[in-house]
Amino acid sequence: MRREDVNENFKVVIRIRPPLEREIDQDFVNIVRVDDDRQLTISENVALETQQRSQKKGTEPQPEAMMYNSHSFTFDHVYDQRARQVDVYNHTARDAVRSTLAGYNATIIAYGQTGTGKTFTMEGHSSSPEDRGIIPRATEDIFNYIQQFSNQNDNHPKTKASYLQIYNENISDLLSPDGSNLQIREEKQKGVYVDKLKEFVVKTPQDIYALMERGAQIRATGSTRLNELSSRSHAVFIIICEQSETRMVDDGDYDSHEGEMRQSFKIGKLNLVDLAGSERVRYSGATGQRLEESKKINQSLSCLGNVIAALTDPRGRQHIPYRDSKLTRLLEDSLGGNCKTTMMAMISPALEAFSESLSTLKFAYRAKSIKNEAQVNEDLDHKMLLRKYERELKQLRLELEKKSRNVVDKKRLLELEEQKRRAEEDKLAAITALEQRSRAFLKEQKMKRYLEQRITFMENELVVGLGEKMQETPAFRKLLKQEYDRVQKKYENTLAELERERQSIEEDKAQVDRYKQLLLKQRDIMIALTGRLNERDETILALQEELDAYDHHQKMLEDALDRKTAALIHSQRMSHEGPASVNTTTPAEEAQFAGILNRTGDYASDEGTEPTSGKDLPVNGSASKIGDLQSKLQRSYLENETLMTQYRQMEEDNKRLRQRLLQVTKGPIIPDASTPSLESVVAVVDSQKQQIYGLKQQCITKEKEKQALKTILETRMKPMMETIRKNTEANITDDSEVNTVTMKTIIGMTRLVEASIEALTIKAQSS
Ligand SMILES: Nc1ncnc2c1ncn2[C@@H]1O[C@H](COP(=O)(O)OP(=O)(O)OP(=O)(O)O)[C@@H](O)[C@H]1O
Q1: Which residues of the chain have pLDDT under 50?
Q2: What's the predicted TM-score (pTM) here?
Q3: Largest CA-CA distance found in the chain, in angstroms, rounded
Q4: Considering 473, 501, 526, which residue would you say is the last residue of a domain?
Q5: Quick one: which residues bind ATP (predicted)?
Q6: Ligand 1 mean position to 120 CA, how many Å?
Q7: Which ligand 1 atom minimizes the distance to the CA of 346?
Q8: Are residues 258 and 298 in the same domain?
Q9: Cα of 117 to ligand 1 centre, how many Å?
Q10: Cβ proximity of 17 and 348 under 8 Å
Q11: Is residue 20 domain-resident?
């Protein structure tokens, strides 16, 4: 699709018609001066008028009354009064016609006050060949071109014509009496068009002249004071040029394989618009029906003015009021759309039309800044369409590859590849189907062409009865129509099927996009889960270390307690059995003994042993304190067990979480009853975090308890043992061996307390 410079696509030219007899009779004064072929000046040239009057009277003109109210304008071209029809066609209309043949939409609009020469410019006078207007000249040009072009190429041009009018806001077909109150429709491919407007295939310029004449007879005209044969409606003559071209692709063709056949269709539409003239009712003297017509004409022209004002608004208005009138709606493509448009504004040179001419010039000047964007209306052949799809697929594959490179998980990459492969297979299947459809479509087209040729042949060759051509018989016409309708329907069905195929390929593309999005989402979820698992692993590791440290210190405490307990039992035994047994047990044996007692619970039964004498009391009191210590340690041991159970529980959860992660990495996340959702996994992680926090709190509490135990031993037990030692020392009267043992026991117990304090201090520091 080629695009042209937008400024080139909307041109405005001015044509000044020569003064009419009526104007010459009424003291004609020329108010328009053409400065060059692009600029003109309009002024209420009182000087000239004064001069003429002065000449009549034989007086000198007044110098101060030379010119006033003068305005200069520049346009794409200015045609003065002497401009011939052929000049106007060659300089202005021919480009538009050639654009149509190149596949563009082109419009020529004749605008101006009533009686300024719009119809003359567009249609001209058929009586004089020199006065032929744009429509007949364009027609000849088109047929000349077609003849020349179709001789050179394997081209099959087809020309069709339609003729419509907008009269009192009602669109009617000027070539078909049934076609009234027609509706304007719009389609993406076709643009704006009139529904049910008949299109006539024309093969010679004469065919077009016949249609023009037929339309002119129906077109609403009337006599007004300013124009004897005034057009009371806006008329649009439409010429459509369709060309199909089949040619061998050469190596210079973009994205095509050399040697392939390429077919393309170009459809250009030429709108030749002859607007009804605006008029000031005061001057035209319209009444009754004429007055109503004038109002409607002025109203739709004012809508045209509004559309042009909106299109050229420097603020860049969003809403363009095309729908305010049938005229503007019909010209939507021509004004600011896909079209090469030329506006021809006609003016009268007479002083009496000064204000109308000035307003026409201002209107035309404003329209100069309209920007159109014209494109060739070209349909690619089906192979080209396939290549276009292939290109899109290739692009899609590249994008997918680019995205895949970013995915960290190799497994996901493999799955992506697999999905991509499946999508490609689907596309390939779609393309194969489309190719088949295209082949069928081409076959249909060939058949259609063959039938058309046969019809033409029959039209030319067959004659029935007394010189009456067969094509003129109703039976033949009926058959012809049936056949034409059948082929047309088949052609349309094939087109519709192709469109469906195209849509299905579009859907496939969208599906691939959805896959891509899903995979990217899964990748993100996977990364998030891995992050959370790592966090949890770190937490568990920290907890494990803490527990190990705790176990170690507990073990130290237990060992210290075992040693002291063994020493105490040994002292007790010594005090009962006498000094002879003092040296019979080694410290290692004592510790082993105490350890055995501790583990079997025999120590507990010792707690209940009754004191044998009053002197033993302090010793047994200390034993009970140490027993307390022992049972606290026992509790701590149990708590440690509980901690271990919780830790194992957490490990179990961790294992489950890893399994969940494995599921996520294996396939798309589709929540079901058996698979925990991401939210539930996150909840488990959170609850375990809370458990870890609880465990930490318990450790802290236990530490506090131990601190309290240490304080008790330090502040209560130690002074107590000191008091016992001092009292015992003071009460010893003789130097018997029992007293010595008792003293030793007391000293041993004091050391035991000190050792316990020391052990607890080490634990507290390391914690
Ligand atoms: N360039 C010209 N050379 C000679 N005669 C012209 C020229 N332009 C217009 N005329 C004559 O002026 C008269 C009015 O012209 P025409 O009917 O084309 O005007 P119009 O703008 O179409 O008017 P309306 O809007 O009322 O239909 C006609 O008689 C026509 O022959």
Answers
A1: 1-6, 47, 61, 63-65, 253-254, 465-466, 578-586, 589-622, 667-672, 675, 767
A2: 0.51
A3: 177
A4: 526
A5: 112-119
A6: 5
A7: 21
A8: yes
A9: 3
A10: yes
A11: no
